Amino acid sequence: MTAINAVADLSVEGDIGVLTLNSPPVNALSADVREGIANGIAQAVANDAIKAIVLICDGRTFIAGADITEFGKAPKGPSLQDAQNAIENAPKPVIAAIHGTALGGGLEVALTCHYRVAVPSAKCGLPEVNLGLLPGAGGTQRLPRIVGPEKALEMVTSGTHVPARKCLEMGLVDELVEEGKLREGALAFAKKVLAEKRPLKKVRDLNDKVEAARGKPEIFAAFRKSIARKTRGFLAPEYNIQCIEAAVNQPFDEGLKTERKLFMELMTGSQSAAQRYVFFAERQVWKLADVPADTPTIPINKVGVIGAGTMGGGISMNFLNAGIPVTIVEMKQEALDRGIATIRKNYENSAKKGRFSMEEVEKRMGLLTGALSLDALADVDLVIEAVYENMDVKKDVFGKLDKIVKQGAILASNTSYLNIDEIASATKRPEFVIGLHFFSPANVMRLLEVVRADHTSKPVIATSMQIAKKIGKIAALVGVCPGFVGNRMLSQRQREAQKLILEGAMPWDVDRVLYDFGFPMGPFAMSDLAGLDLGWSKETSTSSTIRERLCEIDRRGQKTGAGFYDYDENRNASPSPVTEKIIKEFAAEKGINSRQISDQEIIERCIYPMINEGAKILEEGKAQRASDIDIVWINGYGWPVYRGGPMFYGDLIGLDKVLAKMKEFQAQMGDDFKPAALLEKLVAEGKGFKDL
Ligand code: 3HC
Asked: Which one, of 270, 214, 276, lies nearest residue 245 by Cα?
């Protein structure tokens, strides 16, 4: 065995050279790996004893892509293209042997090999789009030459990791080899290639499939239409499509140039910077400063959920989906039956859509037990309370749980803003009490705020993070404060949105601006969807807010066909003259003058106070890092990924600009806009949240 460099070695087995890469954790294409490939192939080519070359990786995966940590830094060592040229132009067959994932640049390297074999568990994909990029090493030109433009469009715009069997069907992989025997299988395949004198198959020379699509722009038009809604606001999907178009309409080398040009545009733009930041933020968020990875955890084999309403039902589904039995408790039989029936209906709808079988529905429902008394929770390992948001009610529940539930179990509250320390004080085991704040719909939304109270123990925190991962959530550890991280920042935006509509912007103006910014919907459309009468009652209504006045005339949101907006029978919204009149009258009563409000002011008023609140959260230590706050906003509130989250966005526009605007607003409108000390400090030091 010859070492090529620190991450590559070449061994000879019979007449096959095996070039092995070993660069943990994922064999990303760092300068060393590129050098290992280029020099390793050159040595194998120079060695007359070697007739064919197998490229294989040690560790958990084949090459998972370019090394993202190198992006934006000065290039070092051989380029990826040098390494790929060494492979593609080798005068001996090169075979990629794939396990784990061949992703991005990894698949692009495999596509320059003359053949590809994989174990059945392997997956291939071009996920660059998820980093705001496109495959920049020939992937967009080679992939359609094997799988055809339609499938290529699907792969590059979705970033899906395609299972090996499917890759085999598509011709992306030439042969599957036995699981766990990749090396033997690849060697056998290489011998076969030699014995059968198979040609050096260069993907770049395959033209049938791209030629067949030439002169058929309708393929692309239809595809663009099909993904328009899902990809609104993102640049990368469109750029990926343009590259596949280039593969169809241009000769290979021209197509490569188009790909390079578009890749560089994306690479140097703010969307990809944001999306790459989010990639690392999603991984950082699991790392806790003072709860080490080896903290003991509590086995969670059985969960109790209190409340069978929308929230409790959604929370339960997460655990049932993960195969964990749930006991759900309600006070009245009717409410319990309704809650359980809703869960069943949700599962049956998924089965109808083909997501899983009816058997699976029964399997999940079989894990669910309904109960009418907290006594049924005596032996669960984790209880999540999702009852009415009222401190006295919560304390009463926790006091009872303390007496009923076995010692060592975690007692969690799903409260979205109440003080967990106070809830914990109702028990004699505050170290086992924690907040697990799910977002509605709880079976769909990815975010979980794990709220650490004063006495919460480290094993309870570690277990909560672990169980979050198990049920497919992304968890952010936050501290106790009103609204925690997400709702605390949201209340800033809500306050300004409410003020803006009294000052002259209409709800549909505010909504349009925030929608165009990239949110799935604006705050007023959201209120209409949720129902304006949440927490409202006719008896206690005092006409003191716009919302109350709307409810009083039975405009209670989408469900009543009217709220801030008017709705037609298909629930399409249109601006409402009635609402406009109510707002104008209300503003006049309050002596607020109506003025023209620019879109820019709407953004600045709604977003900058959120950034400022984020800074306060950081200075109070209620979030571990700025990027955790961004994770909360992306996964819990639909902040557009391509803008990286509010804290990233603050850095992007410049904290000095944010501070100056906050000061200007403060002078005009008072201390709602008082700048956070941390914001002032960072600006004084010329730093951003990224430097913390
Ligand atoms: N570059 C640098 N680091 C990477 C990386 C990459 N491409 N991919 C993963 N890592 C790091 C992660 O940050 C993480 O580091 P940490 O342990 O310090 O937090 C570590 O590797 C392990 O990653 P995961 O925790 O994600 O491990 P999983 O086993 O859950 O997932 C994976 C493995 C499926 C490979 C996943 O990491 C992944 O999807 N990676 C990104 C793949 C990708 O996007 N490739 C395309 C890159 S862009 C490109 O290739 C451009 C080219 O076209 C020119």
From this structure: 214
Provide the edge-to-edge strand list for the sheet that holds 115-118: 2-5, 8-13, 16-21, 52-57, 94-98, 115-118, 175-176
Task: Using the atom order of ligand 1, give the atom closest to the CA of residue 103.
Answer: 45
Expressed in angstroms and rounded, the spacing between residue 63 Cα and the centre of ligand 1 is 9
The whole-number pLDDT of residue 319 equals: 98
The closest residue, in CA terms, to atom 39 on ligand 1 is 64
What distances in angstroms separate CA 511 from CA 503, 505, 516, 565, one per listed residue? 15, 10, 8, 11
67 CA distance to ligand 1 centroid (A)? 8
**What pLDDT band is residue 534 in, cutting at 50, 70 and 90?**
confident
The CA R_g of the chain, rounded to the nearest whole Å, is 29
pLDDT band at 75 (very low <50, low <70, confident <90, very high): confident
Cβ–Cβ < 8 Å for 312, 306: yes
Cα 98 from chain centroid (whole Å): 26
Estimate to the nearest angstrom the gap between the alpha carbon of 207 and the chain centroid: 36
Q: Is the pTM of this model over 0.90?
A: yes
Question: What would the mean pLDDT of 32-53 be, rounded to a whole number?
Answer: 98
Mutate to test the pocket of ligand 1, among 23, 27, 63, 68 (most ligand atoms within 8 A of CB): 68
Residue nearest to atom 54 of ligand 1 (CA): 136
CA of 299 to the centre of ligand 1 (A): 29
pLDDT the model gives residue 38: 98
580 is catalytic: no
Cβ-proximal residues to 488 (8 Å cutoff; 6+ apart), any chain: 417, 481, 482, 613, 617, 622
Query: Per the residue annotation, which of 35, 88, 128, 330 is the catalytic one?
Result: 128
Cα maximum dimension of the chain: 93
128 is catalytic: yes
Q: How far is the CA of 423 from the centre of ligand 1 (A)?
A: 40
What is the number of the ligand 1 atom nearest to the C-alpha of 25? Answer: 21
Q: What is the distance in A from the centroid of ligand 1 to the CA of 238?
A: 23
Rounded to 5°, the CA angle 549-551-553 comes to 75
State phi, psi for 326 to the nearest 5 degrees.
-130, 135
Ligand 1, residues at Cβ distance < 6 Å:
25-26, 28, 61, 64-69, 101, 103-105, 108, 127-128, 131, 133, 135-137, 139, 283
User: Is residue 72 over pLDDT 90?
Assistant: no
Contact 139, 159 (CB under 8 A): no
Q: Tell me the per-residue pLDDT of 218-268, one tens digit each, with 9 for 90 and over.
A: 999 999 999 999 999 999 999 999 999 999 999 999 999 999 999 999 999
Closest CA to 16 of 56, 52, 57, 55: 52
The confidence score (pLDDT) of residue 631 equals 98
Both tokens of 431, joined, read 């170290």
Residue nearest to atom 20 of ligand 1 (CA): 25
Strands (E), 532-655: 565-567, 573-575
CA of 281 to the centre of ligand 1 (A): 12
3-state secondary structure 103-129: ECHHHHHHHHCCEEEECCCCEEECHHH
- Smallest CA separation from ligand 1 atom 10, residue: 26
One of 88, 108, 601, 613 is an active-site residue; which one? Answer: 108
Q: Atom 30 in ligand 1: which residue has the minimum CA distance?
A: 283
pLDDT tens digit sequence for 429-459 = 999 999 999 999 999 999 999 999 999 999 9
Domains of the chain: 2-267 (3.90.226.10), 303-485 (3.40.50.720), 505-509+520-589 (1.10.1040.10), 599-621+625-691 (1.10.1040.50)
| Cis geometry, peptide bond prior to residue 441 (ω within 30 degrees of 0) | yes
